[in-house]
Amino acid sequence: METKHLNVVCAIVRDGDKILCTQRLRKGPNYIAEHWEFPGGKVKQGENDYEALRRELLEEMDWNIYVGAKLGSIEYEYPDFTIRLTAYDCMAHDNDFKLLAHIDSCWLTPEEFAKLNWTGADAELIKQLWK
């Protein structure tokens, strides 16, 4: 059986020296449920990364963001699927978002990221972006 491959995009949203981190819902495999991630989601067929990221943040956070430059990309293999996770530098007009698809959020400096239990892919991305 062929492994499912997902193209996923995430937003690196800054507020001063802090970056927005979001906690996944209690659903899905135990290696991602309730883990922390950068907000974003899957790219649908026919969408580009920018469209997907704007759509995902509107759907999941009722938040209109500006998607800027690509920061980096990693491939990560989970037990039952692989993902290509691409991060974009994003800006928001305000921090007035709603958690419609997450159970928590926080603003942390990269030095504080180790306090959270990240998804495997986001942990790899952090290693790449904040060496």
Alpha-beta classification: alpha+beta
CATH architecture: Alpha-Beta Complex
Number of helices, where a helix is a run of at least 4 consecutive DSSP H or I residues = 2
Please give the alpha-carbon distance between the first and last residues. 36 Å
Number of strands: 7
Provide mean pLDDT, rounded: 94
- Supply the CATH class: Alpha Beta
What's the gyration radius in Å? 14 Å
The number of domains is 1
User: How much of the sequence is in beta strands?
Assistant: 35-45%
List SSEs in N-to-C order.
Answer: EEEEHEEEH
Describe this structure in words.
- Strands 1, 2, 3, 4, 5, 6 and 7 form a 7-stranded mixed beta sheet that branches.
- The N and C termini lie far apart (36 Å).
- The longest helix has 13 residues, at 49-61.
- The chain has helices at residues 49-61, 120-129; strands spanning 4-15, 18-24, 36-37, 40-42, 65-77, 81-92, 102-108.
- 18% of the residues lie in helices and 43% in strands.
- It has a single domain (4-129), classed as Alpha-Beta Complex (Nucleoside Triphosphate Pyrophosphohydrolase), CATH 3.90.79.10.
- A hairpin with a 3-residue loop joins strand 5 and strand 6.
- The mean pLDDT is 94.
- It has 2 helices and 7 strands; from the N terminus they run E-E-E-E-H-E-E-E-H.
- The protein is α+β, with helices and mostly antiparallel strands and 131 residues long.
